[in-house]
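pasting input
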Amino acid sequence: NAGVTQTPKFQVLKTGQSMTLQCAQDMNHEYMSWYRQDPGMGLRLIHYSVGAGITDQGEVPNGYNVSRSTTEDFPLRLLSAAPSQTSVYFCASSRQGGRYGYTFGSGTRLTVV
Amino acid sequence: SQQGEEDPQALSIQEGENATMNCSYKTSINNLQWYRQNSGRGLVHLILIRSNEREKHSGRLRVTLDTSKKSSSLLITASRAADTASYFCATEGNSGYSTLTFGKGTMLLVSP
């Protein structure tokens, strides 16, 4: 099993550009989440999904969109990138929510200039 | 908002010593989890303790939970240089869909 795969690993965007961060898992996990990690901070939840077709907002959803058309994929879209979105983004998945622990991807380091 | 707050923010010890990290949280939880993050990498799940448990062990890890004080501790015994990493506590709430809320982490440095 590959676990949780995130692409790309690094990305530089100009302010106002849009892009999609990809996340795929092959463990048939129902729950998937996107977090961002900023220096000196823990992880903050952006959006999450409890199954295909179901998504909801987390703590910091503004400027991001998600969709969950399949169990395996949970892409994160930046609509119009801003310097405040410079961060490291992590995708995570879990069976039936956090009670069994989350499996994390290796992250996408995004810089918006 | 951050749910968990780890203490200390940074900890430096010698190989062979024990490392203790603490986590406090604010609201009722279903469970509390600890994760490790090596520099520049993703988080790795270490151990989960449910709200009705008081202590749990896994290898060199020992976790305690005191729900009356809304606090937890992670003890790593006989630390190794390879334990150098950041450690995060995360809580799963007990209302609505379960998501994890993370603290800011403790940075552990284990010197040979």
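fyi The interface with chain B takes residues 4, 31, 33, 35, 40-45, 48, 50, 56, 58-59, 90, 92, 97-107 of chain A (CB under 8 Å).
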